[in-house]
Structure formats: C-alpha cells, structure tokens
Amino acid sequence: MKKFILFGFFLITLSLNATHNRAGEILYKRIAPFTNVAGSVTVQVYTYSITVVKYTDYGPGIADRCLDTVYFGDGAKGAALRSNGTSSCNCGTFGGTTIGCGSLIVNKPDYRVKYSVYTIIHTYPGPGIYLIISSDPNRNQGVHNIPNSVNQPFTLESLLIIGSLGTNSSPVLTNPPIDEATLGVCFTHNPGAVDSDGDSLSYQITNCLSPGYFDPETGVNGSFTINPVTGLLSWCSPQFIDEYNIAILVKEWRKNSLGVPQMIGSVLRDMQVLVKYGTVGINENKTFETISVYPNPFNEKLEIDLGSNKYKQVEALVYTNDGKLVFKNLVENAQEKLNLSLNSLPSGIYTLRLKTENKILYRKIVKD
C-alpha cells in the first residue's frame, strides 16, 4: 500500500511542477549473475544496472523528482530511485529502499544546480538492440537555442546493443555536463569519457531532443566543432550572454571476428553552458575588455595582450580542471604584453586567472 501511495504522489507532483532540467545522460553497466544453469544447459543472463544522471534547477516551486521513469527499450519500464544525497527531503522509501535527496552542487543567488542520480536494475530477455529512454516534461526556462524551453521535453537516451561481441557497459563521462563560457572567447569542453571494457570511442555533435533546437551562434568565421577522436568540443565563439544546451553523442566500437570495427552502443550527453562575462570586481568589464589571450589552444607559450592599460601588478595563475594550481607568475608594472612559458604542462584544459590591483579575469585555455 505504501508503494502505491508514494508512486501516485510522484505522478501528481509531475503534473503540477516544471522539472527545470538542465543537463544529463544515461549510463548502463552489465552486472552479475552473467549466466544461469537451466537443467544441464548454461545460458547467458543479461542484467544491467542503469543510471540516469540529471542536473536541475533548485528552489521553491521547482519540482524535485524522487523517482524517474526509465523505458528499457524492450517494451518494459520501471521507476528508478534517486540514490544520492541525504534522506531528509520527505521522499520516503520505495520497495523498502530509502530514496536520496540529491546534492546541491552550485549555490549562487541567480544560479542554483542540483545533482541527482537515479538507479534501477533490469534483466533483458536476450540479444537485441535496446534504446533506453528517460523523458521529463520540462527543461529549465530561458535556454537560448531551444525556443520556449520551459515547455519543451528533456529527453535522454542511450543505445544498448547485446550481441555476439561479448559483455559491454557504457562509457562513463567523468566531466560534468554543466559548464561556463566567456562571451567572445573560444569555449571548449571534453566529456572525459572512460570505457571500462577498453572499447574505442568516437564523438559527434548532434541535436538536443527538443523541438526547435538550433546550434549555438558562432559569429563571422566562427566554428562549432568536435574532435571525433579526442572528444574535445570547440565553440568559437559565444555571441550572447545566455544559457545554451548542446548534445554530444559518444559511440562505442569493438572489432568483430573479421577485424572490422562495429558499433556496440552509444550515450547521448545533453549538456548546458552558461555564457557570461569573464571578469569580476570593480568596474567590471571596463578595464579588461581589451585584453586578449592567444593562441588558444597553445603549445608552449601563452601571450597576454594587455592593450593600452598599465597595471601596478599582474598575477597569472593556471589551474587544472580539479582546481590544482600548476603555474604562478607575478609581474610588477605590467604593460603591453605578458608571455607565459607553459611548456611543462601536459596537454589538457586549464583555467587562467589574471589578477590586478582591483579585479580578476578568468579564461579557459587549452594546451595541445
């Protein structure tokens, strides 16, 4: 009886509140038991743990899903329980399992993001091609490249292919699908896909699964591309201060008995990018508007053009994606240009922080 009441409450909540989904993806992993003995015959068992990862708005009047419906692609569906966070949000239990509350990972006055993980286990009837889907009625309001986004569905899907090429689990995307970009500056993002089976991965830009979606504007001679081998997405350059959604399709490949690569699955990442000015402090965006950082991507040296401005002191700091400081340089009476020698850094994505006596500038930089 408790099961029925909770699930009914979930459906009522779904109809009353917008979910305000920002980003997410669906992952899957094959789990034991892998075989079963029926009589004297050993047969394969195809049981998968399916994980739906979602990043949503947070605040009063915004729906907070305790459960998420997953369509397995074989005609069945199930209620995936939120598994992360504390249990203090009145989600209760479902089937004897306590439901988590998720985690608030960004808490700014005008930008709050909640991280929720939903998990469910499902056994497939046998080999086949299965499209796993999660769909919720509403995205967050104000997505620039999805007209009327708050009334558009937020749909995620991953393709599971069970065939003759052995056990397969989806890649795990280690970099979160919410990111920030700077107006007029090339933006880069890598999903950081890791495949536990050692399968080859390829990447392509695709459409978000919402009506009216269009690719972000790039300006004259700009570009919006992804490296199909490394997965590095480049958007040169954002033209408006706004929120954008971008979709990346990550495909898995494995060689068959003839040595020919064959696709064995895929994950669709629907990510959100917040485009904003890259400076904070006194007289924001006035003094720093003429500064340029190039080349980006770079190989060994990074040049900072200060324009006609003069500074008593400029401190340049470079951080890795996980916040580790890897470079520091302090220049007194700085003017015209600064040259940073970064040849000791490995290839990757970094954050450059320039600090003067009255303001701070951030730029995302990429080393080839």
What topology does this entry show?
Blueprint: H1 2-16, E1 21-31, E2 35-38, E3 41-44, E4 46-56, E5 67-71, E6 77-82, E7 93-94, E8 97-98, E9 103-108, E10 111-124, E11 128-136, E12 154-162, E13 172-173, E14 178-182, E15 187-189, E16 193-194, E17 200-206, E18 223-226, E19 233-236, E20 243-255, E21 261-276, E22 279-281, E23 292-294, E24 301-320, E25 325-341, E26 348-355, E27 359-367
Walk me through the structure.
With 368 residues, the chain is mostly beta strands. The protein has 2 domains: 2-276, Immunoglobulin-like (Sandwich), CATH 2.60.40.60; 280-367, Immunoglobulin-like. Helix content is 4%, strand content 54%. The protein is built from 1 helix and 27 strands. It has one helix spanning 2-16; strands spanning 21-31, 35-38, 41-44, 46-56, 67-71, 77-82, 93-94, 97-98, 103-108, 111-124, 128-136, 154-162, 172-173, 178-182, 187-189, 193-194, 200-206, 223-226, 233-236, 243-255, 261-276, 279-281, 292-294, 301-320, 325-341, 348-355, 359-367. Strands 1, 4, 5, 6, 9 and 10 form a 6-stranded antiparallel β-sheet that branches. Strands 11, 12, 14, 17, 20 and 21 form a 6-stranded mixed β-sheet that branches. The longest helix has 15 residues, at 2-16. Mean pLDDT is 86; it is low at 1-16 and 279-289.
CATH architecture name of the largest domain: Sandwich
Structural class: mainly beta
Regarding CATH, which class of the largest domain?
Mainly Beta
- How widely separated are the two ends? 59 Å
Helix amount: under 10%
* Average predicted confidence as pLDDT: 86
Largest sheet: 6 strands, antiparallel
Which band does the percent of strand residues land in? over 45%
Q: What's the CATH H-level superfamily name of the largest domain?
A: Cadherins
Low-confidence stretches: 1-16, 279-289
Shape: globular
Order of helices and strands: HEEEEEEEEEEEEEEEEEEEEEEEEEEE
Report Rg: 23 Å
Number of strands: 27
* Annotated CATH topology of the largest domain: Immunoglobulin-like
